[in-house]
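During the reporting period the student researcher (J.K.) took over the structure-prediction task from the postdoctoral fellow and processed the backlog of single-chain submissions. One of the processed entries is reproduced below for the supervisory committee.
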Amino acid sequence: MRRWDVAYSPSNFDEMALYPELRELLIYYYDSRDIPHVILHGDTGTGKSTTAFILAQRVKPTFTQANVFDCAGEKKASHVKQYAEQLAHSKGGLSAFFSSPEPECFIFDEFHNIDIKHQTMLNIVLETSAADTPCFFCINDIDTIAEPIKSRCRILRFDVAAIINDKLVMREGMGWSATEWKNELRRVGRIATKKVGVDIDEKIEDKVLSTDRFCVDVRKFFFNLGEAYERKIFYAKKEK
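J.K. obtained the following structure tokens:
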């Protein structure tokens, strides 16, 4: 059976575990095609990269990994720094950046690994790009991002909760309770269950959702939900 966090693979925002305000805004961007430069920040596994890809494919249906800059790791970060320097000092480099006959967009994943100096060099991209050439910066910590970058982007927060004293605590100002968030996870969990092709088992859902630490990282939630179903299927076959 496929890993559930892979099988889930949302193709739209209704299939993602998101708090209502964020989902409504993302759907507005998608439907209106009025997509700005965006900083997507939050903990690992909360949907930042998935969201960036959905928006990028809306801007450019032929969007590929060629337009994704992975800033994780020293070697990859070095490549992005070199690219930022080329853009900052070369008109030719900037021209090449926008030379495509169709709209362009770019994803900078794990952008918090880039130092402030090289982040700021990318201002030229944000200042000169047209409305149909948005950039998406996926990061964990908003405090690691240069102010000039933040000032030119819409900032969207994806983490909804944290584990404090072993309990799930919702982020302030969300207007959602832990129970409502778990119900949202249950909803999208059933989407994955349908995609994988197994029958829904509420007892399995309840067991996974009762472990608060599985409810912060959505990717981890799907991984553990899948493992629970696979154990059930394994023992069911063994009993036959």
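The committee noted the following: The beta strands are 38-41, 68-70, 106-109, 135-139, 154-157, 161-164, 167-170.
J.K. will present the remaining backlog at the next meeting.
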